[in-house]
Write a structure and sequence with these properties.
By secondary structure, this protein is an alpha/beta fold. The chain is about 45% helix and about 15% strand. The protein has a five-stranded mixed β-sheet, with helices on both faces. A five-stranded mixed β-sheet has the order 8-7-6-9-10, with helices on both faces. The longest helix has 26 residues. The chain starts with 10 loop residues before the first strand and ends in a 22-residue tail after the last helix.
Length: about 350
């Protein structure tokens, strides 16, 4: 597997603070989940309609120590038992990232443990590995609040980005459209729920970009929804929230599904994995399941608890980075814009 040898019975303590979840996990051998503690901040950010970076950072500061302790207790291990500390280096909110990174560096210094920087998206990909071992080659569709990408992998830690969003990420578009029909933050789950009840009557555009492009664009779709609703309100025409949700979600899901399947066929892979918070979306899961079944592609989507940001996924990716010899040091810094391909081995 790759050009590095695997050794067993390795415990990774992982820390994830890239956005608004403070999470710590203990992972054994990259697949065995001993603990996964997540301290969510959603209730604090709801009143703002989105994540406020400074508020997120303050909550991380308040919760990181207790979360580390709770995860160790839940895993029934001590810091002396840990072989390495994995931490999200980026991308993410820089202030939030620094809380996790400094906690990891403090532990690494105090207990003389190696520190492993992990790319956030690599973590989302390896969340799948916690439930079904990754087999290669594979195509990965990453869909979250900050990212929409297609990543081709020939082997472990071999990342090739073949498509990405040119503007808004899909999760961001969900949140902004949700706000236009007075749904609370985070908007994705609420739109998904309403979409199951409505009809596709608003005929929102599908953004395909250039022929055979694997890139995505959701800014135009978001604007089309906002403009349509603005015009309807000016004319005092009733807006059916369920129909808006269905029409919007159908547009998103059709594009995501087509491009993911097209990429699999072009790159001759029969394994598609989905990662990121929007991977919990039932409409997307159903559409991909039907399309993959039709094309003979093996589809893996992790359980919803592993779709959102969590440290278990960082520990799973961190285990392979540790085995590959990647090491950080006490000068490690956060990067809110870091290329996943730089983590390829």
């Amino acid at each position: 597997m790759g050009e590095f040898e695997m050794t067993n019975n390795k415990l990774i303590l992982a820390i994830e603070t890239s956005c608004d979840e403070t999470s710590v996990s203990v992972i054994k051998n990259g697949t065995e989940l001993l603990s996964n503690t997540v301290l969510s901040q959603i209730d604090s950010h709801k009143r703002f309609g989105g994540v406020v970076p400074e508020v997120a950072s303050r909550h991380h500061v308040e919760g990181i120590t207790a979360t580390i302790d709770e995860s160790l207790v839940s895993a029934k291990v001590k810091m002396e038992d840990i072989d390495a500390i994995a931490v999200t280096q980026g991308p993410g909110l820089i202030g939030a990232l620094l809380i996790g990174i400094n906690a990891a560096k403090a532990l690494a210094f105090a207990y003389d443990k190696p520190i492993i920087p992990v790319h956030h998206i690599a973590g989302h990909i390896y969340a799948n590995h916690l439930e079904q071992p990754l087999t290669f080659p594979l195509m990965s569709l990453i869909v979250s609040g900050g990212h929409t990408e297609l990543v081709y992998m020939k082997n472990h830690l071999d990342f090739e980005v073949i498509g990405e969003t040119r503007d808004d990420a899909v999760g961001e578009a969900y949140d902004k459209v949700a706000r236009t029909i007075n749904l609370p933050y985070p908007g994705g789950p609420h739109i998904d729920r309403l979409a199951a009840k409505g009809k596709d009557v608003y005929d929102f555009p599908r953004v395909w970009l250039e022929k055979d492009s694997y890139d995505f664009s959701f800014s135009g779709l978001k604007s089309a929804v906002i403009n349509k609703l603005h015009n309807l309100r000016q004319k005092n025409i009733e807006i059916v929230a369920e129909d808006v949700a269905t029409s919007f979600q159908n547009s998103v899901v059709e594009v995501l599904t087509y491009k993911a399947i097209h990429a699999c066929k072009t790159y001759n892979v029969n394994r598609l994995i989905v990662a990121g918070g929007v991977a919990s979306n039932k409409g997307l899961r159903n559409a991909l399941s039907e399309a993959c079944k039709k094309e003979g592609i093996h589809l893996t989507i992790p359980s919803p608890v592993l779709c959102t940001d969590n440290a278990a996924m960082i520990g799973a990716a961190g285990y392979y980075l540790y085995q590959a010899g990647l090491r950080g040091d006490l000068a490690l810094n956060g990067q809110n814009n870091i290329d996943i391909e730089t983590f390829s081995v």
